[in-house]
């Protein structure tokens, strides 16, 4: 049976005296894909930032492999790959340099080969050493997404991964999500796009009235 990865119990968060979500409960195990849906401003990014350990604006419990996040924050962050909805890169650096930083921050060995492969996988072969400010919005997004392929993780948390991505790229990302889940990864994501993946998809709707 799949090990319970992430468990959220009775999560509550508010912003400016407005409740974003309350009594939110779910589990996310190996192979699961969970979409957080809801209208603009309903709290999707807020929830993902909480689960990525970037915000403490919540009440309730978050468990990773049955232990509270506080007890094993370092281990959790090492197993987690969070891609926020911003570009998430340094514009003055090249894709290669950006990813070297990301890998170094994760304590991965300095080796350009997996980084170059990751950049090729996201369609950036030939752009490895060009400053990111000279890349298009979609290409910059792809630099950030390349982290999916050079940083090992058990859990992907992806905030609007399809932003600025062309139609073919959208289908590719859907395939990456399916592949990651098929190999035992767990994925939590937000998107306004109707996901087409060959895995069972669970959806939690925030801001339901
Ligand atoms: N930095 C901030 N300061 C003050 N309020 C904020 C901040 N970030 C978000 N909020 C508020 O929190 C609420 C939830 O925002 P959040 O970004 O989580 O929504 P969302 O569901 O991700 O929206 P979208 O679909 O537009 O990305 C909104 O009402 C927003 O105004």
From TrEMBL:
Domain ABC transporter: 6-209
Domain of life of the source: Bacteria
GO molecular-function terms, A-Z: ATP binding; ATP hydrolysis activity; transmembrane transporter activity
Gene Ontology biological process: cytochrome complex assembly
SMART domains attached to this UniProt entry: AAA
Keywords: ATP-binding, Cytochrome c-type biogenesis, Membrane, Nucleotide-binding, Translocase, Transport
Pfam families hit by this protein: ABC_tran
Signal peptide extent: none
NCBIfam families with a match to the protein in the record: ccmA (TIGR01189), PRK13538.1 (NF010061)
PANTHER family in alphabetical order: ABC TRANSPORTER I FAMILY MEMBER 1
UniProt protein name: Heme exporter protein A
The species this protein was found in: Zhongshania antarctica
Species lineage: Bacteria, Pseudomonadati, Pseudomonadota, Gammaproteobacteria, Cellvibrionales
């Amino acid at each position: 049976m799949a090990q319970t990865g992430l468990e959220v119990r009775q999560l509550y968060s508010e912003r400016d005296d407005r409740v974003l979500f309350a009594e939110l409960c779910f589990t996310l195990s190996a192979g699961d894909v969970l979409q957080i849906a809801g209208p603009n401003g309903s709290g999707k990014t807020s929830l993902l930032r909480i689960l990525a350990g970037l915000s403490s604006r919540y009440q309730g419990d978050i468990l990773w492999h049955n232990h509270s996040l506080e007890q094993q924050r370092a281990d959790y962050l090492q197993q987690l790959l969070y891609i926020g909805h911003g570009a998430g890169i340094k514009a003055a650096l090249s894709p290669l340099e950006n990813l070297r930083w990301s890998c170094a921050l994760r304590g991965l060995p300095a080796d350009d080969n997996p980084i170059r492969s990751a950049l090729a996988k996201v369609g950036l072969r030939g752009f490895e050493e060009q400053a990111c400010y000279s890349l298009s919005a979609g290409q910059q997004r792809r630099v950030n997404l390349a982290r999916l392929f050079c940083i090992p993780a058990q859990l992907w948390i992806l905030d609007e991964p399809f932003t600025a991505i062309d139609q073919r790229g959208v289908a590719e990302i859907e395939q990456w999500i399916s592949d990651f889940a098929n190999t035992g990864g767990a994925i939590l994501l937000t998107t306004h796009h109707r996901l087409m993946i060959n895995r069972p998809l669970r959806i939690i709707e925030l801001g339901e009235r």
